[in-house]
Amino acid sequence: MDKAVTTHKLTKKFGDFVATDEITFEVAQGEIFGFLGANGAGKTTAMRMLCGLLTPTSGEATVAGYDVYTQPEQIKQRIGYMSQRFSLYEDLTVRDNIRFYGGIYGLSRAELKTKSASIIRELGLDSVADALVESLPLGWKQRLAFSVALIHDPKVVFLDEPTGGVDPITRRQFWDKIYEAAHNGTTIFVTTHYMDEAEYCDRVSIMVDGRIKALDTPTELKRTYGVDSMDGVFQILARGTSGK
Question: Where does this protein have coiled-coil stretches (predicted)?
Fold first, then answer.
């Protein structure tokens, strides 16, 4: 399978502090790849390097076939990004947010019209298309933000804690949209602190103190560490002990 993301000994240092320490992994096109770790484990630093926003100290990495050192702008044009903290402009309408982000990604006027109508229809937002985003429930905001991240048909979408703060039913609906995007060939690179969501991923990487401590399918990780949940795997790795 084609590789959407590759890293080899990717390292980022801030002075004497090593934020990511020689992390190596590959993500296949169309894969849902979970990137897990406690706060401060190095997840955000790694994601920023892969998004072309932060230059590594050493190592190698490519995203959608482009080099993170020499081709960060090409990467930015070919990825989507969604954060729990900031993805939409609250003081713009639903329709204006879609048009704004579509314009950033270079969609033509005709493409913007088609995409806007499609997103609004698919999400059932016809009645609030001209309402300010700040007036929407959080779950609607998150689904809209995800659709906007996909508006330019990116090869890879980076989701940073995308379902934080929403109820379990809304989280499940959001993951249905993730499955749909992956089925259509989009690679999903997702960080989450909900261990039950790790079960939805094709493979999971767990970072501890800047290093990848485990990488496999959820089923194999649970078997390896002798536990019945991903939360159990995470707790074992965080403690640095064996579950057997």
Answer: none
**Over the stretch 87-126, which tens digit does the pLDDT of each residue have?**
799 999 999 999 999 999 899 999 999 999 999 999 999 9
Q: CATH homologous superfamily of domain 3-84+155-239?
A: P-loop containing nucleotide triphosphate hydrolases (3.40.50.300)
Question: For the CA atoms of the chain, what is the radius of gyration?
Answer: 18
Return the sign of the alpha-carbon dihedral for residues 224, 228, 230, 235: negative
Quick: pLDDT tens for 172-225.
Answer: 889 999 999 999 999 999 998 788 889 999 999 999 999 999 999 999 999 999
Cβ count near 1 (within 10 Å) = 9
Spatial separation of the C-alpha atoms in residues 222 and 227, rounded to whole Å? 5
CB 159 within 8 A of CB 47: no
Rounded Cα distance between 164 and 220, Å, is: 26
Q: Where are the domains of the chain?
A: 3-84+155-239
Question: How far is it, in rounded angstroms, from Cα 184 to Cα 212?
Answer: 29
Query: What does the pLDDT read at residue 24?
Result: 97
Helix count (H) and strand count (E) of the chain?
9, 10
